[in-house]
Amino acid sequence: MEELKKKLKEQIIEALNLQDTKPEDIDDNAPLFGEGLGLDSIDSLELMVLLERQYGIKVEDPREGRKILQSVQSMAEFIQSKQQPA
Amino acid sequence: MKVKCYIQGMAAISPQSTFEGDITNMPLVRTESNRLACIEPDYKPYIPANSLRRMTRILKMGLTAALKCLAESGVSTPGPIVTGTGKGSLQDTEKFIKEIEQYKETALNPTPFIQSTYNSVNGLIALQQQGTDYNNTFVHRGFSFENALVDSMMLLQEGYTHTLTGGFEEITPEHFYIKSRIGHWRTEPVANTDLFNQELPGTIAGEGSTFFVLGAEANEHSIAALSACKLLYKPDPMQLTATLRELGADADLIISGTNGDSNHAHYYHLLNNTLTQPSIPFKHLCGEYETAGAFALWLAASLLKAGTIPSALFPMVQQLPSNFKKIVIYNHFYGEQHTVMVVERV
Amino acid sequence: MAERVFITGMGMVTAIGDNVAENLQHLRQQKSGLGFTDYIDTIYKQVLPVGEIKLSNEALFNRAGIPVQGGFTRTTLLGLVAMLEALQQAGIRNLSKEPTGFINASTVGGMCDTEKVYFDLINPEKEGDFIESINTLDCADCTQRIADTVGFHDHIATISTACSSSANALMFGARMIKHGMYRRMVCGGTEALTRFTLNGFNSLKNVDKQFCRPFDNQRTGLNLGEGAAYLVLESESFARANNSTILAELSGYCNANEAFHPTSPSPEGDGAYAAMKNALAMSGHKLEDVQYVNVHGTATLNNDVSEGRALERLFGRKVPPFSSTKPFTGHTLAAAGAIEAIYAVLSIQHGIIFPNLNFSEKMEELSIIPVTELQEGVLIKNVISNSFGFGGNNASLVLSKYEG
What we know:
Chain A contains four helices and no strands. Chain A is mainly α. Chain A has one domain: Non-ribosomal Peptide Synthetase Peptidyl Carrier Protein, Chain A (Orthogonal Bundle), CATH 1.10.1200. The two termini of chain A are about 20 Å apart. In chain A, about 30% of the residues are buried. The mean pLDDT of chain A is about 90. The longest helix of chain B is centred in the first third of the chain and has 17 residues. Chain B is globular and about 60 Å long. Classes of the chains: A mainly alpha, B alpha/beta, C alpha/beta. Chains B and C meet through helix 3, helix 4, helix 5, strand 3 and helix 6 of B and helix 4, helix 5, strand 5, helix 6 and helix 7 of C.
C-alpha cells in the first residue's frame, strides 16, 4: 500500500505537471482538489486517464470519480480494491 | 473600415527581442533556417504556476503578450477581448490527433482537445483578468487579425472605451513540414537578412503573439492612431491599386509585407509602382504567418513613437526616411487575403 | 439611429432534414435525427449516438450542384447545401448586384477529412492526391470555397468560439449592417462530425450513450451532431427598397464572457444571465414579451444547471416556455447557433413551440421543466436563442416577429 501511494504520487506529479511539487509534499489524506493541491475538474479528468492508462481501471461516471479522487489515500484504496480479485 | 482609434498599449512576442526591448536599440536577430521561432519570455511573472503547468506554447505566448499589453496601457479591465489566429494551438491539435491514434480512442487526456479550441487564449485572458465583456475570435488566415481590428473599431464606436485586440500564431516542426509540401517555404535555407536578395518560390516561416489596447480617445498612453483597416479578398489589380491610392496617397512611409516569394511577388510590385514613397519590409523580422499583420502594426506604432527607423533592423534598406507621420501597411497572405492599414502619429 | 436588421432568407441541412421545410416537418412530427454513424471511422460507431446527415459526400456534391472534386470537405459541402437554399430563398441570384459580406463559423474546419490523411501528410514517404487537402486543415478553407463557389467577393470572415461560433457570426454580420458597412450580410456556420470532436467531448466525459436528455435529472451528456445553416440579413432600408420578404427581425444580441473556467459554465449561470438580459434589453422588449426560449440545453451536467439557474434568475417565477432542440439534431457545435436561430424564426412564423424530447424527470437543482409536448397555434412574438461555448463564451440572440 505504501509503495503504491508513493508511486501514485509520482505519477500524479508527472501527469499533472506539478513542477514544484515533490512526492513527500503530498499528504496521503490531504484533499487533492480545491484547498489541497489546488486541482480542478480538468485535473480530475486527467487523473481518471491516469487510472485507466497506468492501472487499467476505467471510471465512467464523473460523479463516482469525485469520490475516488478525494485524496491519494482514497485513490490507492480504490486501485487496490480493483486489483484484488473479488 | 475608416474610424480613428488609438493604440494605448501594446506588447509583442516575436522572433526579435520585442518583448523586453526598445526598438531604437534592438539588435537584429539573424536567422539561418527557414523557420523563425519566437524569443519566449519568462512566463512566471505573468501566469500563476498552477495555470502554467497545463498550458502549451501558444497559450502562454498569447496570454503573456495580452497581460503585458494591458499592464502597459494603464487600463484596469480588459474590456472586450477580440483576437485573430489562423491556426490556434497547433501543438495541442497535433497532440490530440496523435493520442486518438496511439490510445485507439480510449483513455484520452482532454487537455489538448480543450486547448486546441481556437478561442482558448481568449478564454484564458478573460479568466485571468475577469474580463466579462464581449469576447470573439476570428480564424480566417490573413484576415484573422484584421477582422479582429474591424470588430474592435466597431466596438469602440458602440461605446466601449477600449478593447484588447490581438493576433497570435505558432509554427511547429510538423506543420512547417506539412506546409512545405505545398510550397510555402523556400527549398534552400536562406538567412532572414538575405530574404529579399532574390525572388524565388516560397518564403520563411514565422510566428508571434502581438496584442494592443485600442482606445476610442487619445490619452497620455497613446502610442499611435490607427485610422483605417481595409480587407480585400482576392482583389483584381485595379481594385487593389484603387485601395492603395485611396488610403496611401498621402502616407510618408510604406511597410510592405514583401517576403521574397516569387509566386505572389507581383502584388508587392504593384504596391511599389502605385505608392512610390520610401518603403521598408518586415517579414525578415517575424517570418510569414497568418497574423503577421499584427506584428506590422506593432512595428508601425513603435516607429511612430520612436520617431526614427533604427538602421540595425533594416540593413537591406539603403535610405531610411527620417521624418514620417503617416504609415501605410500593405500585406497579403499567399495572394488571397489582402489588407491595408493606416497608422498615424498622435 | 442604426438600422434594424431583418432576416430575409434561410437555408439549412441537419440530421432532421436537408432543407428548412424538412426540418420544420420533422420538428412537428417530433422525429429525432439521432442514431449511429455511417461515415465516421471510430470505435464508438455503435456506442455513442450522433445526429448525422444521411447523405454521403458524393450525394452532397450532387445537392451542391458541383462535380465531385478534391479539396471539398464535408464541412464545405454541408455549408454549400445550406448556403444555396438561403440565397435562393432570399431571391439572390447574383451576388455582384449588391455588395454582400459573408461571415462563416467553424470549430475544426476540414478536420472531418484531414484526420483521415493526417498521418500521410506528415509522412515524407507518402505521396498522392491527399496533398491537395493540406489547405483544408484550417477553418478559413470552407468559408473561401463556399464564397468562391457562390460568388461572394466582399468582406469575408470566419469565427471560431466553440459552440457559440455561428451565433457570434450572426451578431458580427448584424453589427456590420448597423454600422452601415454593408446593407446585406449572409451569416451562419457549418460543422461536420469528426473523430476528433467525438473523442474530444468523450474525453471530457460528457457524451451520453443514450439519446441526450436536456434538463432531465438523469441526463449524462450531449450527443454530437452535424449540420450547416445560413441566414440572409438585410438592413431595413435595403429590405424595403429591394422588396425582400421579411421573415423576422434580429432585434437583439449579446456576447458576454463568464471568466469562470476553461470549459465549464458557472453554477449560477452568470454568463448566460448577462447574455440573455442584455440581448433582451437591446431588443427593447420586456421579460413578459418573450414567448419562447430555445435554450442551449446540451444535456451536459453543468450546462443545464447553469442555464436553468440563469433562466430562473432572469425571469423569476415566470420563466417562459423553453426547450432544447438538441435531441432532434445533436449538438452541431459551430452550426448550432444558426440552426437554432432558424428554428426560432420558424417558431415565430408558424406559432409553434418545439418539444424538448427525452425529458422525464425534473432536475433537482431547478424548479422549472422544459416544454415536452409540441405546441401549435401559439402567438410568438419574441424568442431568445442561446448558444454557449468553451472559454466562457456566451451568446444570446433575440428574434422577433416582423410587424411592419
